[in-house]
Design goal:
Layout lengths: L4 E5 L7 H9 L6 E6 L1 H11 L4 E3 L10 E6 L16 H16 L5 E4 L4 H6 L7 H9 L4 E5 L4 E4 L9 H4 L2 H19 L5 E5 L14 H14 L4 E6 L1 H4 L2 H4 L4 E4 L2 H12 L4 E5 L5 E4 L16 H20 L6
Parallel strand pairs: 1-2, 1-5, 2-4, 3-4, 5-12, 7-10, 8-9, 8-10
Antiparallel strand pairs: 6-7, 6-11, 11-12
Helix pairs in contact: 1-2, 3-5, 7-8
The chain binds nicotinamide-adenine-dinucleotide and 4-hydroxy-L-threonine-5-monophosphate.
Nicotinamide-adenine-dinucleotide binds next to helix 4 and strand 12.
Function: Catalyzes the NAD(P)-dependent oxidation of 4-(phosphooxy)-L-threonine (HTP) into 2-amino-3-oxo-4-(phosphooxy)butyric acid which spontaneously decarboxylates to form 3-amino-2-oxopropyl phosphate (AHAP).
Pathway: Cofactor biosynthesis; pyridoxine 5'-phosphate biosynthesis; pyridoxine 5'-phosphate from D-erythrose 4-phosphate: step 4/5
Pfam families: PdxA (PF04166)
Length: 331
C-alpha cells in the first residue's frame, strides 16, 4: 500500500504551533507529513527550542526524524513569539485552505492542525470563527465538532457562537443533524456498531419539567424521539451538571452538549494533554490539538506536545482505516 500522506498546518505563527510541529517532526512515524506554513517561522521555532529541523520538498514525503516536507505559505511579517501579527492572517488561512484542498483532491489522507488565534485573524480583516466552520464551508458539508480523550467524547450542537445566540440555534433540525453526524462518525471512525449517546439539556436541571425553560420539551425531546424511532440509542435530555459523573459516563460512547462551554471545560479538565479536536462529517479525517495558541509559552520550549502527537496518531489511525474500508457512501 502507498505511504499514508497527512497534511500538517502549524497555525498561528507567533504561538506554540510551529515549535510543536518541530517536535512532531522528530517523532518516529510510518506516514509522510507535509506541512503548510512559513519556512522562517518553523526554523525560528526549531532554533528557539534547540532542535534541528531540515525542511524538504513536499514531493519527498520523508518519514525521517527531524525532516519535514514543506509547502510554503509565506508570512507577511516575521512575528515575535507571543505576539500575533494580524498581517499574517491571510497566510494562516491560506495554509489551512491549501491543505484542505489537498485533502479534498485526494493528495492527502488527512489533516492535522495546530492552534489558530481567532482574534488575530479577524483583526487581519478575515471573518473567522474557527477552523471547524472554515473546513465545513470549504468542503460544502455539515460538520460536528467533537473533542475526545480516553475518558470522554464530547460533541457540540453549536460551536463558536456568542452565548446570547445559542438558544435560537438549538432547533430540532440542528440537534438531529448533530446526532446523525456524531452517530455515523462513531460507527465509521471508532468502530462502535450501535453507539449509545447521552444528550444534555440546555437549561439548568434539563428544564425541571418545563419550570426552568422549555427547550428540552419543545425541541430536544422531539428530536430524540424522532431518531429513536430510527433505531438510535439515545439517553436524555440529561441535566448537564451530573451527566459527566464517572459512574454515568461509563455507559455512553459520547455526550452531545448544546454549546461550547457546556461540554468542553469538562473534557479539558478530564485530560487536557491527551485530548484532540475532531471535525466529524468531512470527507477526510481532520484532527486538531485541543489547546490554543498558548502565547505565554511560545518560543520557550516548555509547551506540551502531547495533544499534537495524539492528533497525529488519531488522524493516521482514522486515515488508515478509511483507506482499508474504501470511500464512504453518502445517502
Ligand atoms: N485548536 C485551536 O485552533 C484552538 C483551540 C483553543 C483555543 N484556540 C485559540 O487560541 C487562543 C488562545 O486561547 P486561550 O488562551 O483561551 O487557550 P490556550 O489553550 O491557548 O491557553 C490556556 C492555558 O493553557 C496553557 N496551554 C495551552 N496549550 C498548552 C500546551 N501545549 N502545553 C502547556 N500548556 C498549554 C496556556 O499556557 C494557558 O495557560 C484564542 O484565540 C483561542 O480562540 C485555538
Ligand atoms: N473550540 C475549540 C477548543 O476550544 O478547543 C477551538 O477553539 C478550536 O476550534 P477549531 O478547530 O474550530 O478552530
Amino acid at each position: 500500500m502507498d505511504l499514508l500522506r497527512l497534511a500538517l498546518v502549524p497555525g498561528e505563527p507567533a504561538g506554540v504551533g510551529p515549535e510543536l510541529c518541530v517536535r512532531l517532526a522528530h517523532e518516529p512515524r510510518d506516514h509522510a507529513l507535509v506541512a503548510f506554513g512559513d519556512a522562517d517561522t518553523l526554523r525560528a521555532a526549531a532554533d528557539a527550542i534547540g532542535m534541528p529541523l531540515r525542511l524538504v520538498d513536499p514531493d519527498q514525503a520523508s518519514t525521517r526524524a527531524g525532516e519535514l516536507a514543506l509547502t510554503e505559505t509565506a508570512n507577511a511579517i516575521h512575528p515575535a513569539f507571543g505576539t500575533p501579527e494580524p498581517a499574517n492572517a491571510g497566510a494562516v488561512i491560506d495554509a489551512l485552505q491549501r491543505a484542505a484542498t489537498g485533502c479534498m483532491q485526494g493528495d492527502f489522507d488527512g489533516l492535522i492542525t495546530g492552534p489558530v488565534h481567532k482574534a488575530a485573524i479577524n483583526e487581519g480583516g478575515i471573518a473567522y470563527s474557527g477552523t471547524t466552520e472554515l473546513l465545513a464551508r470549504h468542503a460544502g458539508c455539515d460538520v460536528v465538532m467533537m473533542l475526545a480523550n480516553d475518558i470522554v467524547r464530547v460533541a457540540l450542537v453549536t460551536t463558536h457562537l456568542p452565548l446570547r445566540e445559542v438558544p435560537d440555534a438549538i432547533t430540532e433540525d440542528t440537534v438531529t443533524q448533530c446526532l446523525c453526524i456524531t452517530a455515523a462518525a462513531l460507527q465509521r471512525d471508532f468502530d462502535i456498531a450501535r453507539p449509545r449517546i447521552a444528550v444534555l439539556g440546555l437549561n439548568p436541571h434539563a428544564g425541571e419539567a418545563g419550570h426552568l425553560g422549555r427547550e428540552e420539551i419543545d425541541v430536544i425531546e422531539p428530536a430524540l424521539e424522532r431518531l429513536r424511532a430510527h433505531g438510535f440509542d439515545l439517553i436524555g435530555p440529561l441535566p448537564a451538571d451530573t451527566a459527566f459523573l464517572p459512574a454515568k459516563l461509563h455507559g455512553f460512547d459520547a455526550v452531545v452538549a448544546m454549546y461550547h462551554d457546556q461540554g468542553l471545560p469538562v473534557l479539558k479538565y478530564s485530560g487536557f494533554e491527551q485530548a484532540v479536536n475532531l471535525t466529524l462529517g468531512l470527507p477526510y479525517p481532520r484532527v486538531a490539538v485541543d489547546h490554543g495558541t498558548a502565547l505565554d509559552l511560545a518560543g520557550r520550549g516548555v509547551a506540551d506536545p502531547s495533544s499534537l502527537f495524539a492528533a497525529a496518531r488519531t488522524c493516521a489511525r482514522m486515515a488508515r482505516a478509511r483507506r482499508a474500508r474504501g470511500p464512504a457512501i453518502h445517502a
